[in-house]
């Protein structure tokens, strides 16, 4: 079907953008970085997540997106409660630990068990304690709506920012330090 002159094209007239086009465009959207944690069967679990947002103040709701093919998200969902740990600018070691699909993420890491039963990471800007509410499948991810139980603001440092495949805002369009293969590399590994 072709659009009439002067009207927008029909979305069926061309295929959607390729994944690399989408990555490049969406990589220009700077976001904060979080680590979503929970206790599952007495074992701490967690993953790095940049897809986090406030949904509502009344009632207090947040959302995050999790790759439903990952190993950690099903365990957090089964636990029922989680903690969103909003990372500070100097916690790149933490995001690399939780952004990796290998290794023991909590080995040698100092954390506390919150009164809600989830690991609360130290040195973070904010902690949002919540319980899993609605889960909406969306492509290869689940959009998770969490009902907020408590918030803590233990730090006042600068936030960690993820922008154009790296941490911080120092990257410009066409920056040769980031190759096409690296584009969103960390985000692709996050659950």
Notes on the structure:
The protein has 191 residues and is α+β, with helices and mostly antiparallel strands. 15% of the residues lie in helices and 38% in strands. The protein contains four helices and twelve strands, in the order H-E-E-E-E-E-H-E-H-E-E-E-E-E-E-H. The chain has helices spanning 19-26, 72-79, 92-99, 185-189, and strands at residues 31-32, 34-40, 43-49, 52-57, 60-67, 81-86, 111-113, 119-121, 126-138, 141-152, 161-163, 166-167. It has a seven-stranded antiparallel beta sheet. Strands 1-11-12 form a three-stranded antiparallel beta sheet, with no helix packed on it. It has a two-stranded antiparallel sheet with strand order 7-8. The longest helix has 8 residues, at 19-26. The chain starts with 18 loop residues before the first helix and ends with a helix. Residues 176-191 have low confidence and may be disordered.
């Amino acid at each position: 079907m072709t659009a009439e002159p002067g009207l927008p094209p029909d979305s069926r007239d061309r295929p959607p953008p390729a994944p690399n086009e989408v990555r490049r465009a969406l990589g220009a959207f700077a976001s904060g970085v979080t680590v979503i944690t929970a206790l599952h069967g007495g074992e701490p679990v967690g993953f790095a997540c940049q897809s986090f947002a406030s949904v509502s103040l009344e009632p207090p709701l947040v959302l995050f997106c999790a790759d439903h093919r990952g190993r950690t998200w099903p365990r957090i969902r089964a636990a029922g409660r989680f903690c969103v740990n909003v990372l500070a600018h100097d916690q790149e070691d933490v995001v690399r630990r939780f952004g990796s699909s290998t290794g023991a993420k909590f080995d040698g890491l100092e954390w506390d068990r919150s009164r809600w039963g989830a690991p609360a990471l130290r040195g973070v800007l904010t902690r949002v304690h919540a319980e899993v509410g609605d889960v909406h499948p969306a492509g290869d991810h689940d959009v998770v709506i969490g009902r907020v139980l408590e918030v803590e603001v233990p730090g006042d440092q600068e936030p960690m920012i993820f922008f154009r495949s790296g941490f911080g805002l120092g990257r410009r369009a066409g920056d040769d330090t980031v190759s096409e293969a690296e584009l969103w590399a960390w985000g692709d590994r996050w659950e």
